[in-house]
Write a structure and sequence with these properties.
Length: about 270
């Protein structure tokens, strides 16, 4: 289980990623994705992934949807179950971490023609039936990154510490970036593919806030839609100790904010 610190550099990641891309290209020669690709990073999620995939509609808001599962070194049948449910699958042969798995998914989606990328988790905490709700502002051209917000909607999570953290980090990021957001770690997000290419991303496990803060500083339009967060339907959490999680998340928020505001200031000086 990889619950390691924010930017742990695993020496094998580069080779494992390259091998996964190579194998994916061999499995799907000439692949051209639908305009929307739902990307799911999954690590030992054989119990939940099928249920997630079966409820992703093949079309929403007038655009067709494909699914892409990044199997992050699972030791169970995550890849097989995903294929049985119609997903494209790229497999990292060793566990690399949620952020690395998602970025591989973004890259494959972009390289094979996706216009929009939606993220979900493999444990069905985020409801595939709500994909159209976050997709709608994108397709309407009203936003570049849409967050599904459990604060605007509802959470079935009974972990009060984690739930309080959602409010605290929303407050902090809103204050730092002067952009009102209510849910910064949501797993249900929709974005223009371009956002995933232009925003700097390095985090291995706390990547949602990094992408969000970077997108805000690059001037992308952020929107939120109410959604429901359910309880994990199978398997175990991969996130580890809550206090450590909160501490590391805060660290990532502050460092990313500092990095991105400096980068934005430099860019605006250059353009005069
Ligand atoms: N944390 C973690 N998640 C991974 C990793 N690789 C892929 N994932 C997937 O990332 C998604 C989120 O992980 P979860 O363990 O559900 O994290 P979470 O939703 O914040 O935690 P819970 O509320 O306890 O479920 C799941 O689909 C995981 O299978 C990894 O190395 N670490
Ligand atoms: Mg989860």
């Amino acid at each position: 289980m990889s619950t390691g610190s924010a930017k742990v550099r695993k020496p094998y990641v580069h080779a494992v990623r390259a091998a996964a891309i190579h194998a994916f290209d061999e499995s799907y020669p000439g692949l051209r994705f639908a305009p929307v690709v739902v990307v799911i990073a999954a690590y030992d999620e054989e119990g939940g992934i099928g249920s997630v995939l079966q409820d992703v509609a093949p079309e929403a808001c007038g655009v067709t949807i494909d699914t892409l599962v990044i199997d992050d070194g699972s030791r169970d049948r995550t890849s097989e179950v995903s294929r049985e449910h119609g997903a494209h699958v790229a497999r990292l042969e060793r566990n690399c971490g949620h952020g690395i798995a998602l970025r591989l998914g973004y890259e494959l989606a972009r390289d094979h023609g996706a216009q929009y990328i939606v993220t979900l988790d493999g444990d069905r905490q985020w409801d595939p039936l709500e994909v159209p709700s976050v997709l709608e502002p994108l397709v309407a051209g009203e936003a570049d990154l849409v967050l599904g917000s459990r604060v605007l909607g509802h959470s079935e999570n009974d972990n009060r510490f984690r739930h309080a953290g959602v409010y605290v980090f929303a407050w902090l990021i809103s204050l730092l970036t002067r952009t009102r957001v209510t849910d910064t770690s949501t797993g249900l997000r929709a974005m223009r593919s371009e956002v995933t290419a232009t925003v700097r991303q390095e985090q291995v496990q706390y990547q949602t806030s990094e992408l969000l803060i970077g997108a805000i500083y690059q001037g992308y339009r952020i929107a939120e839609r109410p959604i429901v967060q359910h309880k994990r339907i199978a398997g175990e959490t991969k996130k580890g100790n809550d206090l450590l999680y909160a501490f590391r998340y805060a660290n990532v928020v502050l460092r990313t904010w500092d990095r991105e505001r400096r980068a934005a200031a430099t860019a605006s000086r250059r353009t005069g």
